[in-house]
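Practice problem: predict the structure.
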Amino acid sequence: MSDHERHISAAEPEIARLVEVVGQADLATPVPTCPGWTVADLIRHYGTVQRWITHIVRTLPEERVSVRDLDLGLPDDVGDYPRWLAAGVRPLVTTLRATPGETPAWTFGPDQHVRFWSRRVLHETVVHRADAELALGREPVIDRELAADGIEEFLTSYPHHPRVAGRIAEFGRFGATLHLHATDGDGEWMITLGPDGTRWERGHGKGTAAVRGATSDLLLLLYGRYGPERCTVFGDEDLLSGWLAAAAP
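Answer:
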């Protein structure tokens, strides 16, 4: 099974879980990990991204498509948002499955192929499923290997996003290093900041700042869903907090 197919297969139950969780929620419930958002806002965001990616994979544009140019079919009645979200699942999965992963496609990352989007769908869903569960007072459970792949997808893709790359460049601290160390299994990553962008590699090393924690906690730390207090931090805490703020999607 290719990585593209594996990511689609892993995304399906995650999407189903997200649809189930938001379907149980009061749509006016605040989402604490997305300040200012309610569950309705979370649904609208995820459903928009869902349809945007479906359009990109289906049409294979050579440059970025604005969501403003798409007919999202967003209901006027907020109460219909969960059904609207569920209705976008099959077109997304079917489109991804019908398109070979090695097909060239525009992406915001260095991998300019459709396989970028199957991986992105998976981890976009994992993080927003966690948002929905936290909004309902539940502790999200994320498989360790899935969380490790999410960390690497984040480090591979988001430093190349134009908005994020600009913030990282402005942050500076070139030559500084960050070490992420998973405490619940194999998983260590060294991140190096430089004027030519952010580089990362698997492995152990002495970082300017280091963070130890469960793999899922490290993933949600990168996405700003958890604070450093969930983990153990060593070294330059200002470097860690500054880089996390700059690298946040």
